[in-house]
Amino acid sequence: MSEDLPHPDRAEIRIEAVLHALADPVRLHYVRELDRIGTGVACGAIELPVTKSTRTHHLRTLREAGVIRMRKEGTARIATIRRDDLDARYPGLLNAVLSAES
Amino acid sequence: MSEDLPHPDRAEIRIEAVLHALADPVRLHYVRELDRIGTGVACGAIELPVTKSTRTHHLRTLREAGVIRMRKEGTARIATIRRDDLDARYPGLLNAVLSAES
DNA sequence: TCAATAGTACGACAACTATCGTAGTTCGAC
DNA sequence: GTCGAACTACGATAGTTGTCGTACTATTGA
């Protein structure tokens, strides 16, 4: 049953949630890797210093904040940055965060 | 004794701390008001739906993250946004956050 | 000197959250 | 069908944080 995970609509994305999602080092690293790779990538393909279940937790935070989109593909879930939505709603924000020095 | 409160140097400002500081609704509202008013303003001059001590807590978070600078002036403390430092370190970030719709 | 004003410090508490382990689900391959 | 791979869900726990009340400090003014 390809019940997909819920994502907020573009209009529902809240700036506080986006900032909070990006404020965590693990999540920020994940989003930066996603950005560096460019194309969508399986959740597990990006190395993180946490367990699988913690990873799921962080990915849910990013997804529910509207930062990433996840779609099923076989047993994997492919994650992509919601660049269009974020750029439309908060122009310049994503670029500023991603291009910031560590 | 005019011992001043500690502020991080420009180079010490961390993106995670800035994002975390701005991710709270109370703090974001405060920074937006600071920006709207433009000039430095006494801490207490901006209305917040919290008590004095909670306000102090939030202002410390903003100060320690490097988002605002506070200087003593009589019994008051004047708060200003560290726009120069933030723009230098994370170009576009502050503008993107401040201009975001509620 | 005394009182009022503006803010900080500290202790307490509830809510949130980052983490983990374990169990469950879904899909593809054999 | 069965096994493994890739995740998610759930429950527990320790640490963080937003909130408050009270007490304290520093400065101004009467």
UniProtKB/TrEMBL annotation, chains A, B:
Originating species: Lentzea flava
> What protein name applies here?
Transcriptional regulator
Give the HTH arsR-type domain ranges. 7-101
Give the SMART domains listed for this entry: HTH_ARSR
Q: Which InterPro entries match?
A: HTH_ArsR_DNA-bd_dom (IPR001845), WH-like_DNA-bd_sf (IPR036388), WH_DNA-bd_sf (IPR036390)
Fetch the SUPFAM superfamilies from UniProt: Winged helix' DNA-binding domain (SSF46785)
